[in-house]
């Protein structure tokens, strides 16, 4: 419908007396004019169809976009004075248009949500009746409280959801009765990516809470950062600012989620493996007992699961920082230090902590833009008599040879600092530095980059790669030899024929 939406006039409104003037029931019939489907609350309308919208209902103009709330006000004689939808207004394209001014002056009517709060990538909904408690029962939403009606992984429309199990509502009600505070924690990256409008998701939260008829607090991580599970940002905000100053007892609290790291065929009829283990890691980071929805609501036995291979809890903080122990970080003579290691393996932190403060010139491709600029900066520093620290991955012999040649040309020594963090540890560090605020800016690194570098940093795959390259070269020279031999034979034959005819 887009800008062709047409709202019913007062004369089109249906009023049914229920015996009292203050209890007049009102609705309006809204026709669908455009080719794109619209929704009246959860009712889908296609072109030519009409639907009934009642007081407090929501009209979505195009799929899950452009929501409008319908609100009636009564005159002194009990009749509707207007049928104007209030709340979010479609903006007039002209600056200072009428609709833009109305949107600023018309608050969004609230249903089950008493309070809304937003800071950065955190949105917080608090329903009426929510009270602070030392016992928190936390739940994920998608795949834990609700699932899609369509059976697809992602919802196809705002109303494409249903409560996952009939046991959910009574179990949540029982928790509340026993003094728990029920809190939902959900990641919604689609909001940050522009695939899901915040007001549409807010309306969905209202509908879920209205269906459950329970006082629930809902935390939403709308983008990357410290609030996104498995990082503890949402939990920390709950404990510090959103629990009525009641201290939380983690030994009495729990968390339930479906991203539990379960493998393929973890149960009959559940053949797909979990897309991640972020919910289990979220509970693990906080220190809460964890359950899957099937275990908590249906009483199923615990399913097998797999956590990431790298476990930061097993790191020895007293382990030796470098090897061999007799080595020194810096030298009194001019030199070149070349780092080798995965992205996020600790190279920059080590250099800025132990090397750069000693007067070494810092050379980094992320800063300078290309390896040619890095080589030029290295040459310039050596001409000035200053030592250089090259902070790049430098995975292959060719990239390291550039700096070896520069050092040889300058008549100085060159050392290699190999950072031995595993692939899993480097990927863990990379996710952490993307979430945590830092003064040091790093280029974003995806999994493809990590796995391509694995060929160089694994000894076995390194040998296999070089054997492969050797075989390719050998085949190439053999092929070249055969071609040359064939050409020579052809030339000799041609010369012999020429002599014969002459």
UniProtKB/TrEMBL annotation:
Basic and acidic residues: compositionally biased ranges: 89-103
GO CC field: nucleus
Gene3D superfamilies (alphabetical): 2.60.200.20, HAD superfamily/HAD-like, P-loop containing nucleotide triphosphate hydrolases
InterPro entries assigned to the protein according to its UniProt record, in alphabetical order: HAD-like_sf, HAD-SF_hydro_IIIA, HAD_sf, P-loop_NTPase, PNK3P, PNKP, Polynucleotide_phosphatase, SMAD_FHA_dom_sf
Transmembrane annotation, as ranges: none
Molecular functions per Gene Ontology: ATP-dependent polydeoxyribonucleotide 5'-hydroxyl-kinase activity; double-stranded DNA binding; polynucleotide 3'-phosphatase activity
Domain of life: Eukaryota
Region (Disordered): 78-111
Biological process, per Gene Ontology: DNA repair
NCBIfam families cross-referenced by the UniProt entry: DNA-3'-Pase, HAD-SF-IIIA, PNK-3'Pase
Descriptive protein name: Polynucleotide kinase 3'-phosphatase
Taxonomic lineage: Eukaryota, Metazoa, Chordata, Craniata, Vertebrata
Gene: pnkp
